Amino acid sequence: MKTAVILAAGAGKKVWPYAEIRPKAMIPVANKPIVGHQAELLTRIGFERIIVAAGPMHEQIRHYFRNNNLVDVIEVGPAKGTAFTLAAVKERVGEGPFVVLYGDTVLEQRDVERLIERFERERPMAAALVDPLRDEPTHDWICCNLADGKVANIMGHPRMRFTHRFCAFAFAESFWPYVTNNSGLFTNVQVGMMPPVEGHLEMSLADCIAESHPVPAVEAEGMFVDIDKPWHILTANHLMAAKLCGELRQNELAEGASIDPTATIDGFVKLGRNSKIGRNVVIRGSIIVGDDTVIENGAILHGDNVIGDRTYIGNYCWIGRGSTVGNRCIVTHCAEMSGMIMDAVHLSHYMEFYGIIGSHTDLGAATVCGTLRFDDRFSAHWVNGRREMPKGHANASYLGDFSRTGVNAILMPGVKVGVYSVVGAGVILNEDVPNRTLVYAKQELVRKEWGPEKYGW
């Protein structure tokens, strides 16, 4: 099996505000786009052709892979469903079996290899890599049950009693008719459900099963995150950063890199070219640092941190465990951050942040976000008009790309700020801010007479 397809045409509306200026597949996880992680995974396995079926803003994906001869980025137009996205690249896939990955998932290489091994051993029409739902709610996913190591039945967003969701697929050439003849409507739903008019690849798989073709199922054993909502980005980022840093077995210093002897390091460090760890830095775990980055002057990092290129971290700032910092960032002067910040973000002057900050964003001095509600509960979120109760990162704040905050802005737990938006100085923000919006406080002043006579002079 030499050909793989990555389905990357989805609009990503539910992950707002992070798919507004980039394709969903280009959202960074541990400082690398999701689709970049997938292409590297497939390359390591030995695939010779990787086809990315891309939708709006496909130019960014093509630009990212401009120097990679193995990756072919195909524009398929706005997504009408994963089945139709796959059908649009049928001619480019050509003859023979192929693997399909979703462009918004983070998964393990070994699990994909196990899927391929099972497919090549049994030679079915289709095989699926599936993830046990565990504590994930069934109504958020297209689900399935297993019987005797095979997919038994498929149901869209069921209320209960389904055990797995889909991660990836391996298909024989003979499966194509089920893709090209997809009805464009998911009919495997329970009564009262309301599926959109969309051609899901899982419905093609359900049609295949209905015609008595067995579909072997391989259960994922490693990390799997389907990035559907903003908090899923944080989960994937934390897991990937821990995985990458956990693979270090010794210090790795590229040409020109250095570690000052006054630094305290309780793990291993991987430093890119000309990067340095300076005086009195404390690192309580392992970290990975890009090129031309400086970490100095009492900075505290709690480990499992991935830091980008040409970034400055210093002056007694604090970075939490599992957090990542993008390229060309500045984190300085007692700033505290936990979560992830994308490229070209500036944090300084006694600010505190937990969550995600989009690229090219500047936080004013003393900007803080609340992480604990007065009722000790988790914040509810509204996604596409639907109330959501995240199990993780519900009280994080989510700032979109090219946004700003003013001095002393306060972001209450769970708020989201759209792209190209500003939260003004002194604002106490307790609601989401749409794209392209300025929010500022309107102040009322009270004037009274005052002077020495008030003190008895």
Give keywords.
single chain; 457 residues; alpha/beta; 9-stranded mixed β-sheet; 8 helices; 41 strands
Describe the structure.
The protein is an alpha/beta fold and 457 residues long. Helices cover 16% and strands 29% of the residues. The chain contains eight helices and 41 strands. The strands form eight sheets. Strands 14, 16, 17, 19, 20, 22, 23, 25, 26, 28, 30, 35 and 38 form a 13-stranded parallel sheet that branches. A hairpin with a 2-residue loop joins strand 2 (28-29) and strand 3. It is globular. The model has no long low-confidence stretch (mean pLDDT 96).
Q: What is the share of helical residues?
A: 10-25%
**Major sheet details:** 13 strands, parallel
* Structural shape: globular
Helix segment tally: 8
- Overall pLDDT: 96
Question: What's the short version?
Answer:
Helix content is 16%, strand content 29%. It has eight helices and 41 strands.
List the helices and strands and how they pair.
Layout: E1 3-8, E2 28-29, E3 32-33, H1 34-45, E4 49-54, H2 58-64, E5 71-75, H3 82-87, H4 90-93, E6 98-102, E7 105-107, H5 109-122, E8 126-132, E9 142-147, E10 150-156, E11 164-171, H6 176-180, H7 201-210, E12 217-219, E13 224-226, H8 230-246, E14 252-253, E15 258-259, E16 264-265, E17 269-271, E18 276-277, E19 282-283, E20 287-289, E21 294-295, E22 300-301, E23 305-307, E24 312-313, E25 318-319, E26 324-325, E27 330-331, E28 336-341, E29 346-347, E30 352-357, E31 362-363, E32 368-369, E33 381-383, E34 386-388, E35 397-399, E36 404-405, E37 410-411, E38 416-417, E39 422-423, E40 428-429, E41 438-439
Parallel strand pairs: 1-4, 1-6, 4-5, 8-12, 14-17, 15-18, 16-19, 17-20, 18-21, 19-22, 20-23, 21-24, 22-25, 23-26, 24-27, 25-28, 26-28, 27-29, 28-30, 30-35, 31-36, 32-37, 35-38, 36-39, 37-40, 39-41
Antiparallel strand pairs: 2-3, 6-11, 7-13, 8-11, 9-10, 9-11, 33-34
